[in-house]
Design a protein that fits this description.
- By secondary structure, this protein is α+β, with helices and mostly antiparallel strands.
- The chain has 5 domains: about 270 residues, no CATH class; about 100 residues, no CATH class; about 110 residues; about 120 residues, no CATH class; about 70 residues.
- Helices cover about 45% and strands about 15% of the residues.
- The protein has a 9-stranded mixed β-sheet with strand order 2-6-7-10-1-11-12-13-14.
Length: about 725
């Protein structure tokens, strides 16, 4: 079977954004009751004469200049003779012999690289009406509202070879026309339609195959599917010994197939002749120069300026300039808030997410740059929290612009909530007597002096009290976080601000202690595999970049076995372009080992993390040469993998004992004694029993104190040597 390539050219019909039609004064507004936007001229009544719309000529010249075309100084209109029910005059006024623009091009980018697509011509013409078929009555009706709406037909050269190139060309063309203000290019309303001319030929053949034309496809997805479907149909036809016929076809997106409509006409079939009712036009150089002077800044120029003027990454600049309304939103928001990168983040994040959620197209966006800029500025100044900023954004998204008024009302409500939340917590705590640490434990958890068989009952009986405490404290902390930076603006004096801050610390500390003492806190390591999968799938930190497969640390075992003289023996994929090992890969994998193993020995891995960061900082500041850096990095890897020289006392033999030693200030006696206490009290299944856990914690508390006992318990419960299984 031969290998075929497709050859594609496009005829793009663009409705112009004029207020009136091309040859009469009827409105071009979309919609309206059928046949209400008509007059004797656009419906072709006898005795009427067309008059050319100057704005149409201006838009045509603007489009030609933006697509690198030659402007035809002397041009005229022609009659294209054919009759369909949607064309009441039995002819269309168009241009054939002297189109207004010729010999242009558009540069596109695809995965394969840059490419230039030639533009054969751009000509002006009038649109036809619309046929509406009623399947119930089996009748076809005609709406002439669209008759006479001004069009530009942009005819490309047959330079495209794939659907990807076609979409890139259409995207670039649509973007350019939008920036010019020539058309809104709303494909869903038919203001941008594409006819796809496609043929196939064996790869290497110079002659074109027989082409077909698929008419008026009005979405990028449908165009891509139509190209794939027609290519497949033509190849199969040729392979089966048939011949492709030159014809006009209709693409049915629901059936994923095209259907023949009629044979494809040639120019002579339309009996073109000069339009007798419209004199030729001569376009002066002064007119062209005036249009050129009014040309707006196009997307490519904006991309360069955004990087230069605002310091934006190229990625941000390209996203922001894809649609003209989004670029306008960004520029106004950045001007108001003075923080271009934050404005970019808000538009690419919250704004586009909300647009997707509410199915809002860029041209229909009611969010103003003034409102968005005011929100960003208020958040940056600390007058509202990030959460309040998001709420203000939701308010502004629907077109509301009084952001300052919204902030005042929001802060007023937040102040009321803050004071109510404080009263709630204080009222609950006032029930505790005495107001001591032991008193709070006894009220919310259990009495330490009660018999062990009573403790579980007290723990359960006090569950509702603890639930209220957690709920009230969370509410207070949320309210305080929303207002922390706005308290002064809201009239709170220094003493009051200090009081609220101290209350936040006090309530949070009490909540944490109660959670630990009652064992209500969640041990995330129990759920770590599933949670990590969820996080990896759905959560991405801002400004991060994956530089290595962090879940596979076996590579570090290779590194740990090396010394600085053996670096060249590392695998090739871990070497940079200069033949040296990739430091970033080692760093990334090492950082993941530290993160993953840190709960087993926080003190030890905390130190390794600090050392690693210091090494990275030295490398970035070029304080270490390559050999010195890799030498130290390898030693750090060996420590992380447990392959460094033994730095523990002889009595500290197991991973659990080493964790105790490191986290008890490297006190050998305390480590050994704590190990013995744990072994004595670690009853089988202790991780599944609160009573058994409390027994270990109480025993450790006698040696270490309550706070350290809880800290040590959270470490040792992860070590299998003290009994298998997680709580």
């Amino acid at each position: 079977m031969a290998t075929y390539e497709m050859v594609i050219g496009l005829e793009v019909h663009v409705e112009l954004a004029t207020k009136t039609k091309i040859f009469c004064g009827c409105t071009t507004k979309f919609g309206g009751a059928p046949n209400t936007h008509t007059c004797p001229v656009c419906t072709g009544m006898p005795g009427t004469l067309p008059v050319a719309n100057k704005k149409v000529v201006e838009f045509a010249v603007a489009a030609g200049l933006a697509t690198n075309c030659e402007i035809t100084r002397y041009n005229k209109f022609d009659r294209k003779n054919y009759f369909y029910p949607d064309l009441p005059k039995a002819y269309q006024i168009s241009q054939l012999y002297l189109p207004i623009c010729r010999n242009g091009h558009v540069d596109i980018e695809t995965a394969a690289g840059k490419k230039t697509v030639g533009i054969h011509e751009i000509h002006m013409e009038e649109d036809a009406g619309k046929l509406v078929h009623d399947p119930w009555l089996d009748e076809t009706m005609v709406d002439y509202n669209r008759c006479g709406v001004p069009l530009l037909e942009i005819v490309s050269e047959p330079d495209m070879r794939s659907a990807e190139e076609v979409i890139a060309y259409l995207t670039k063309l649509r973007q350019t026309l939008q920036y010019l203000g020539v058309s809104d290019c709303r494909m869903q309303e038919g203001s941008l339609r594409a006819d796809v001319n496609l043929s196939v030929r064996p790869v290497g053949q110079k002659e074109f195959g027989t082409r077909t034309e698929m008419k008026n496809i009005n979405s990028f997805k449908a165009i891509a599917r139509a190209i794939a479907g027609e290519y497949r149909r033509q190849v199969e036809l040729i392979e089966d010994g048939g011949q492709v016929k030159q014809q006009t076809r209709r693409w049915d997106d629901n059936k994923d197939a095209s259907f023949a409509m009629r044979s494809k006409e040639n120019a002579q079939d339309y009996r073109y002749f000069p339009e007798p009712d419209l004199p030729p036009m001569e376009i002066s150089q002064a007119f062209i120069d005036a249009v050129r002077a009014r040309q707006p800044e196009l997307a490519e120029a904006k991309i360069a300026r955004y990087q230069r003027e605002f310091g934006l990454p190229e990625y941000d600049a390209r996203i922001l300039t894809e649609e003209k309304p989004m670029a306008e939103l960004f520029e106004r928001a950045a001007a108001v808030c003075g923080r271009a990168k934050e404005a970019s983040n808000w538009i690419m994040g919250e704004t586009m997410a909300m647009m997707k959620e509410k199915a809002v197209l860029p041209e229909n966006l009611t969010l103003s740059g003034d409102a968005l800029g005011a929100i960003i500025r208020a958040a940056a100044d600390g007058r509202i929290s990030r959460q309040s900023a998001r709420e203000a954004f939701a308010y502004a998204f629907d077109g509301s612009e009084d952001i300052e008024g919204y902030i005042k009302e929001k802060n007023k409500a937040c102040r009321k909530d803050l004071e109510e939340a404080k009263e709630q917590v204080e009222a609950l705590l006032a029930l505790v007597h005495p107001q001591t640490r032991e008193g709070f434990f006894r009220y919310f958890v259990y009495d330490d002096n009660a018999p062990e068989e009573e403790m579980d009952k007290q723990l359960d009986d006090n569950a509702e009290k603890r639930s209220k405490l957690y709920k009230y404290v969370r509410r207070y902390l949320n309210c305080y976080a929303n207002l922390a930076n706005s308290l002064e603006d809201m009239g709170y004096n220094e003493a009051e601000r200090k009081e609220y801050a101290e209350c936040a610390k006090k309530y949070d500390a009490l909540k944490r202690e109660i959670e630990l003492r009652s064992n209500d806190h969640i041990d995330m390591r129990r759920y770590e595999p599933d949670m990590r999968q969820v996080l990896d799938l759905y959560v991405k930190a801002e400004d991060s970049e994956v530089i290595a497969k962090l879940d596979d640390t076996s590579f570090l075992d290779i590194v740990a076995a090396q010394n600085e003289e053996q670096l060249n023996d590392l695998p090739d994929e871990l070497k940079d372009e200069y033949g040296r090992a990739s430091a970033e890969t080692v760093e990334a994998n090492l950082r993941e080992v530290i993160r993953k193993d840190s709960p087993f020995n926080p003190a030890y891995y905390g130190k390794l993390s600090i050392i690693l960061q210091e090494l990275i900082d030295k490398r970035k500041k070029e304080m270490l040469d390559y050999e010195e850096y890799m030498k130290e990095l390898i030693e750090l890897v060996k420590k992380a993998k447990g392959k460094s020289a033994n730095s523990y006392p002889e009595s500290i033999k197991t991973p659990g004992m080493r964790a105790l030693y490191d986290n008890l200030g490297q006190n050998e006696y305390l480590a050994i004694r704590a190990h013995e206490i744990i072994k004595e009290n670690a009853i089988v299944g202790f991780r599944d029993s609160r009573m058994k856990q409390k027994k270990i914690i109480r025993a450790l508390a006698k040696l270490l104190g309550d706070e350290m006992a809880l800290k040590i318990y959270d470490i040792i419960k992860l070590h299998d040597e003290y009994g298998k299984g997680y709580c």
